[in-house]
Design brief:
SH3 type barrels; 2 helices; 5-stranded antiparallel beta sheet; 105 residues
Length: 105
């Protein structure tokens, strides 16, 4: 015979928990390094947008700088200079600036 006979491998199976351990560790890393920080940023952004009140100075996601003159449930009205007012969704607000920032510009 030219080919040696093949014998079956050892029938002992590895522990299922050990085989899933790399997958569990990978999920834990994704959770603590990606998912959890993103959820925290979204929560802080939502809290900041809900706390907007009349007189705050804000920057929108489009880069518009203005002072809040009217606040409703879903919209805010900004005075963007020269008496010009624009209406934006609350979700468009990116940053609330310290008082007096617009005067310094």
């Amino acid at each position: 015979m030219l080919i040696a006979p093949a014998y079956a491998a050892d029938p002992a199976q590895p522990d299922p928990i050990v085989s899933f351990l790399p997958l569990i560790v990978l999920f834990a890393l994704f959770y603590f390094l990606i998912i959890r920080p993103q959820m925290k940023r979204a929560k802080d952004q939502k809290k900041m947008q809900d706390a907007i009140q009349k007189g705050d100075e804000v920057i929108t996601a489009g880069g518009q700088l203005g002072k809040v003159v009217k606040v409703t449930d879903q919209y805010i009205t900004l005075d963007i200079g020269g008496g010009t007012e624009s209406v934006f969704q609350r979700g468009a607000v990116q940053t609330v600036l310290p008082k007096g920032t617009i005067k310094d510009l």
